[in-house]
């Protein structure tokens, strides 16, 4: 009788234990909402942006290294026509695929300090941060001032480079970055500075620098070592003013030339 009683209790306890375990798993999943509950992991937005930036930069460097190895193997095998190779080399500086050095300027842009944000709760938050148009204004002014080469966050800017705001970060070549933003240009320092001073948009930005302490600092550089552009050179789409834009496909995606 006792043996039968123990078996009955065991049979009744197993489903109950499984039910409790299921409830615990469901509660944990609901509380986590798909996130990591371990406090040791950095799940803040800034941490995620920095982690993604490091990962993307590592992949870009790996891509550049493999591309360079392929080009070296092609040259060794003589698969590139010498005239074509010479032409490619002459265009590399203009395209931005080779490192360059020279004097120039660095412009650093920063959001308003935290105490200014705290002390101005009624001010539009958009007035207290650097936006993509601020970075674009500096870049455009430097190009207008005769910049020979340019980087943002130490990444080479080329003709297809796009700058886009996503939340409180700026995306460059598909990689998110947080402020401060550093824009560096190689060229005649006096002409570059004059172009910055003559920019109407930067003049408007200076008002917010005074009112809300947005960061705007220009530094003279006697010698700048600027890296080569290491991303893809494929142009995905383009549109001319006055013409209707139509979807296009990259030639490399279809195997064309």
TrEMBL record:
Keywords: Signal
InterPro entries named among the record's database cross-references: DUF881 (IPR010273)
Signal peptide: 1-31
Recorded superkingdom: Bacteria
Gene Ontology cellular component annotations, sorted alphabetically: plasma membrane
Entry's family note: Belongs to the UPF0749 family.
Database matches in PANTHER family: CONSERVED MEMBRANE PROTEIN-RELATED (PTHR37313:SF4), UPF0749 PROTEIN RV1825 (PTHR37313)
Protein name per Swiss-Prot or TrEMBL: DUF881 domain-containing protein
